[in-house]
Amino acid sequence: MDKLAIQGGTRLEGEICISGAKNAALPILCAALLTEETLHLDNLPKLRDISTSLTLLGHIGMQISLDETGGIDLQAARLDRLEAPYSLVKTMRASILVLGPLLARYGEARVSLPGGCAIGSRPVDLHIKGLKAMGAEISIEHGYIHAKAARLQGARIFMDSVTVTGTENLMMAASLAQGTTTLENAAREPEIVDLANCLIAMGADISGAGTDTVRIRGVGRLHGARFSIMPDRIETGTYLVAAAMTQGKIKLRQTRTDTLDAVIEKLREAGAKISCDQDTITLSMDRRPSAVNIKTAPYPAFPTDMQAQFMAMNCIAEGVSSITETIFENRFMHVQEMQRLGANIEIEGNTALVRGVDKLEGAMVMATDLRASASLVLAALVAEGETVIERIYHIDRGYERIEEKFNQLGAHVKRVH
Ligand code: UD1
After folding, report:
1. Which of ligand 1's atoms lies nearest the C-alpha of 191?
2. Number of other residues whose CB lies within 10 A of the CB of residue 78
3. Ligand 1: distance of its center to the CA of 360 in Å?
4. Residue 201 and residue 377: Cα distance in Å, rounded?
5. 117 flagged as catalytic
């Protein structure tokens, strides 16, 4: 299993380009199931979650071909199986995103229940409830969700908590339903807007994406389209925090600054100087960061996917901070590993109290989930000496060429096979 060996203590300086957004790409790949014509995608990030998704779509019977420019053609003309097997769903929960499209276009789907997950129980009851409201018959058999519907019917669906992939699954299903579906208390994440824009390019009739009420008027069929995936706001935020922690100066290109308001505001509060235009962000930091309090919540509030990275910054910041996680119940697994590096963190319920220390010290640590592992890389960049991070397959799920990008900014990150 690969490890990362990181020599800490270098100030980050330079420029890198941000990759396409994983969390936009995953639902958009599944949207290709909604038409027999070709969906061409650009700016698809090269990540393990994307290859898992392509393996799943290939298993279902989708024709997939890559072109020379890195674009991809997806065609779901004739499918072999309407099924997402446990072996794939257990490695990536977002596999649940095939449920809505398969059911809407083929009238049937069998998708394994995701099961336990490192960062909490993460049920899919709202996906199921929404599809039932649209007329689907759903049973749970042998660990699989088995859904059937002659043709889904438009419905008014109120989701009693905000779910990102739940909103996406229902939006895709409703695109081919008979009549209008209204999703209330919908998630407002920019990735939802990206998916809606792709569906609209394929002929769907959707309004309100990016607000808490999304209206989808079902159409008889969708057609092929060309679409470019939006930039990854979490990758962008991770590099910004890294630069702030190392008191560096970096420029990030090919990003989208309008998707990062909460993160940028917190970095400014920590003392960073940030300038933005539409697709470029420059950050410079000329002092030790100040501790900042964080509370995660659905977009546009502070993202749970940036919580661990800000905790890493608070570990070496001046002052004391509190970090409250409101989305997932078990998302502090990085704390124990950070303590191995010398951090001073206490957890009480869903809040972590972080007392900034003068320095961290390199040690062996273990990556436990995707964003937790990113936070360990950040802590390692400022720790004295060498940190070795094990189980970095978690990082490869969501960060494209992480060692190459950090090294381009002057860091010393080595992948050890
Ligand atoms: C998505 C993101 C993930 C991010 C998360 C929250 C993708 C592929 N992943 O995950 O990176 O951390 O949003 O921003 O986009 N819930 C239920 N019932 C459901 C669905 C969700 O109770 O049917 C709960 C979950 O347990 C959790 C909360 O709702 O507590 C939010 O989860 P959700 O937004 O669904 O997360 P994901 O879509 O899985």
Report:
1. 15
2. 9
3. 32
4. 38
5. yes
